[in-house]
UniProtKB/TrEMBL annotation:
GO terms for biological process: negative regulation of cell division. One of its GO terms (cellular component) is cytoplasmic side of plasma membrane. It comes from Cupriavidus campinensis. It comes from the Bacteria. GO terms for molecular function: ATP binding; ATP hydrolysis activity. This is Flagellar synthesis regulator MotR. Residues 21-222 form the CobQ/CobB/MinD/ParA nucleotide binding domain. Keywords: ATP-binding, Cell projection, Cilium, Flagellum, Nucleotide-binding. InterPro entries: CobQ/CobB/MinD/ParA_Nub-bd_dom (IPR002586), P-loop_NTPase (IPR027417), ParA/MinD_ATPase (IPR050625).
Length: 267
């Protein structure tokens, strides 16, 4: 609790920037929504106003698990078609603001003027069949790659980093390993992936943290809730809060306006 309070104070004193974080699963079933919604709840526990943008149009899992009932999309808000507070509709009990993303155009101004009071926007990103991200996710300050401690997932994570580096000229990625059973395994695979990404792509892949293999995550999903909200003392909740406490130290990437301009924009 003390570390959360210190982090909250540090954020209040820091220059005001609406940080945008794209949470990207390297493969189906990696746990993207678990991580995105968990981080949103963990940041809210630190006293930060957070918006979670759900790009899953079909299932809208983040919206359902948050218990929210929004009236419009983030695209509607940014396009001036509905005020932010009205678009939120019924808020999640946790206080996290949740909206379906909609079609947010490239170059949309996602800042404190468009979203009053919001300090962090987390995007529960959905990749296309070709692995491409939406313009909003692609313009994020930080990319979080969610992976599992398995060989196929490690390969998929490297391919995801390579694709995003080439498409958006990003040179720094955060890794979160989900469903990890041993810390030593996580440390070894993250070092190997970071070394390979540095050697062959010239990018930095940093381990932001890992979620232990916690049965309470599955239990929370059965209840239709986020583990951070449903089980505050769960091991996975502690891990997500630890990751959230370090977000303020992540370097801010200058956002790319569009994929075509990415090569001209420094990371």
């Amino acid at each position: 609790m003390g570390s959360d309070q210190a982090e909250s104070l540090r954020r209040m004193l820091a220059p005001r920037v609406t940080r945008r974080i794209a949470v990207v699963g390297c493969e189906a079933g990696a746990g993207t929504t678990t991580v995105a919604l968990g981080l949103a709840n963990a940041l809210a526990m630190q006293g930060e106003r957070v918006l979670l943008a759900d790009e899953d149009r079909a299932a809208a899992r983040a919206i359902r698990l948050a218990g929210a009932a929004p009236k419009a999309t983030l695209a509607d808000v940014l396009g001036g078609r509905m005020p932010f507070d009205a678009a939120l509709g019924t808020r999640a009990a946790s206080g996290v603001a949740v909206l379906p993303a909609g079609n947010v155009p490239a170059g949309a101004q996602i800042d404190d003027r468009a979203l009053p009071g919001i300090r962090t926007v987390l995007v529960d990103a959905q990749s296309s069949e070709t692995g491409a991200l939406s313009p909003m996710a692609g313009a994020a300050h930080n990319f979080v790659i969610v992976m599992r401690p398995e060989a196929t997932s490690i390969t998929a994570a490297y391919a995801c980093i390579k694709r995003l580096h080439h498409e958006f000229a990003c040179r720094h990625f955060q890794l979160i390993v989900n469903m990890a059973d041993k810390e030593a395994t996580v440390m070894a695979l993250s070092r190997n992936l970071a070394r390979t990404a540095s050697q062959y792509l010239g990018v930095e892949a940093s381990l932001a943290g890992y979620l232990p293999l916690d049965p309470l995550v599955a239990r929370a999903l059965q209840l239709g809730r986020c583990v951070v909200e449903a089980y505050p003392a769960a091991a996975a909740t502690g891990a997500l809060r630890h990751v959230a406490s370090g977000i303020g130290a992540w370097p801010l990437r200058q956002e790319a306006v569009s994929p075509g301009m990415a090569a001209a924009v420094p990371a």
